[in-house]
Amino acid sequence: MPPLQSSSSLSSSLPTPNPLSSPMAKTLCSIFLLLSSFSLLVPAFSQTDFTLTGFSSGNGNGDANITLGGVAEVQNSGVLRLTNETLRLIGHAFYPSPLRFKNSNGSFSSFSTAFAFAIVPEYPKLGGHGLAFFIAPNGSLPGALPSQYLGLLNANNTGNASNHLFAVEFDTVQDFEFRDINDNHVGIDINNLESNKSVAAGLNLKSGDTIQVWIDYDSARKLLEVRLDQSSSKPRDPILSYAVDLSPIFLDEMYVGFSASTGLLASSHYLFGWSFNINGDARSLDLSSLPSLPKPSKKNYALIIAAPVSALIFLLMAIPLAGYLFYKVKTADVIEPWELVTGPHRFSYKELKHATRGFREKWLLGHGGFGKVYKGVLPGTKEEVAVKRVSHESKQGLREFVAEIASIGRLRHRNLVRLQGWCRRRADLLLVYDFMPNGSLDKYLFADDAIYPPLSWPIRFRVVRGVAAALLYLHEEWESVVLHRDIKASNVLLDGELNGRLGDFGLAKLYERGANPTTTRVVGTLGYLAPELTRTGKASTATDVFAFGALALEVVCGRRPIDPKASPEELVLVDWVWERCVAGNWKETLDPRLAGEYNSDEAEVAVRVGLMCSHPAAMSRPSMRDVVRFLESGDPSEVPALSNTPPGSGLERGELGFDDFLHSYPSSFEKASSSSFSNGAGVFVHSSPV
Ligand SMILES: *[C@@H]1O[C@H](CO)[C@@H](O)[C@H](O)[C@H]1NC(C)=O
Ligand SMILES: CC(=O)N[C@H]1CO[C@H](CO)[C@@H](O)[C@@H]1O
């Protein structure tokens, strides 16, 4: 069965044949035409009415009902995927032939459309960038850019009347350049990406659920209405209505279709069905009859394949270990072969349960990257520990756990949070870390002064030096190169003496020294991501250095790398610091909470090292060895002069670089980062919970 069932009334682009031919009918017809010229009745017109309940891109025999552009593809199920979760993509899909929006009397047609879509973001709360229904002179939208341009326009033609572009955007990123109201809105765009009118979507566009949209334009009332709902029936009230005369925007013949794009953040954008009608109501789609997304997802497929394979491997390995395992099964702790070779100590579940008083809420320190973190007191030694309980609901839970054990397990450095050991019991994965009594660095930098007193200069400088030393150890001094990949203030914890210690190695991966790091998904946090990382997805020691630079400036200036509350020129911290430095006023960038009490040489070194590390070109950033040398000397004359390249430059505006951070900066990040107070290795506490 072909995935596409075109509606029985499909009469694409064909004038409705006039069935009236008798003289009587002709009279009726002229009355009809007369009336219609007074707009009292719907005029005689060409009609287009189609309903696609699923899509077919054709098999080369000219039977395609949708033309694709960019990375768009029709899947076997009939689902049209405009983009996948790769960065900076464009996907287009449009009706193969242009449609006439002029009635035979020259008046402008009404039109109506309904479609069903879903947006599945790569990271649950961060979509990128959005989807739009468009009507344009050319279905392939030549010259269009991804990211905030939604695959519709580019930096040069945005706003031009010659675009003849009408679009309704479903935007999941708040873009400041186009004055987006939030990161979940519906907007009407005419020749421009700055919406003529927009409203909050009212439901979560990037929930991954199927959403039906109805867009109706009444040419007599000159009124555009947009409705959306997660159901098959059209809601009574529009969420957006806009009085507009579209006739000057449209050419006589226009293409209708969809565009979606991804940027620094990415979502898969899907379409399931589409109906369109000129001078009539588009048919509502019955969501239950449309093709749907495959379940289980790709990741679960991997599990389905991986499970029998690992079971086999496990069986093979289990034979020599059978006796040992039999003993262990009796103790109810699961042991896997790799657990026997790593360094850290293995705890019994009973021991940890006792240490955390049965994982009581009262002992909860916070929510770490992949689960809850509890404070514990080991029964024998009375030593305080932090126990991270990796939640099994998290699909990545197990993989993260293995990565964490494998990398952090044997690392030993005074500026790293030490992993003491682990435990597994059924679905529970438990990691035991040194307890960090003073919590995470970001609290001291940004939270209320009354609860977290501002850190003095000597402590700040020591924290920066400590983190630099830890990174040098990871990059150059251990047996293999370890990339941290997620250096940020909430991942730096303060020990009893307020030394900075890097935590959360859940994202780290081991690389053999000298081997080429393979391309992987970008992990990390906006504002700390090096430009080349967002472009190529390749983490390297230079991307860690970049993140360290952002962290160093953050500590010295007391501001986040991207601060949405700051004025536009201060929005991107590194840009602002660089400008102040070039103007010779670097002291203005220091955290006012230092109240002028700092060592001027050390502060200058820290600011300049922060800027060097933030260089847009990876090759121009120093190595961690150099960074440590500059910081240890505390002498500004040891630090090379600032380069002439401003941070973020060397990359075309709108192409990539800090612009992308800016444009892609979703408002939800603010929420995310405040909750990430408790998002470090989770090895912290601020007050004793007992
Ligand atoms: C997404 O699509 C692009 C272009 O078709 C392809 O190169 C890339 O491998 C795809 N990515 C994923 C994650 O499937
Ligand atoms: C595959 C498929 O159903 N194609 C249909 C697309 O629409 C035309 C009419 O315009 C039909 O004739 C095709 O069968």
UniProtKB/TrEMBL annotation:
GO cellular component: plasma membrane
Pfam families: Lectin_legB (PF00139), Pkinase (PF00069)
Main location as per UniProt: membrane
Keyword Signal: yes
Subcellular location: Cell membrane; Membrane
GO molecular function: ATP binding; carbohydrate binding; protein serine kinase activity; protein serine/threonine kinase activity
Enzyme Commission number: 2.7.11.1
Domain Protein kinase: residue ranges: 359-662
Entry's Gene Ontology BP terms: defense response to bacterium; defense response to oomycetes
Catalyzed reaction equations: L-threonyl-[protein] + ATP = O-phospho-L-threonyl-[protein] + ADP + H(+); L-seryl-[protein] + ATP = O-phospho-L-seryl-[protein] + ADP + H(+)
PROSITE patterns per record: PROTEIN_KINASE_ATP, PROTEIN_KINASE_DOM, PROTEIN_KINASE_ST
InterPro entries: ConA-like_dom_sf, Kinase-like_dom_sf, L-type_Lectin-RKs, Legume_lectin_dom, Prot_kinase_dom, Protein_kinase_ATP_BS, Ser/Thr_kinase_AS
Membrane topology: Single-pass type I membrane protein
Main EC class the enzyme belongs to: transferase
PANTHER family membership: PTHR27007
Family: In the C-terminal section; belongs to the protein kinase superfamily. Ser/Thr protein kinase family.
The name this protein goes by in its record: non-specific serine/threonine protein kinase
Organism: Apostasia shenzhenica
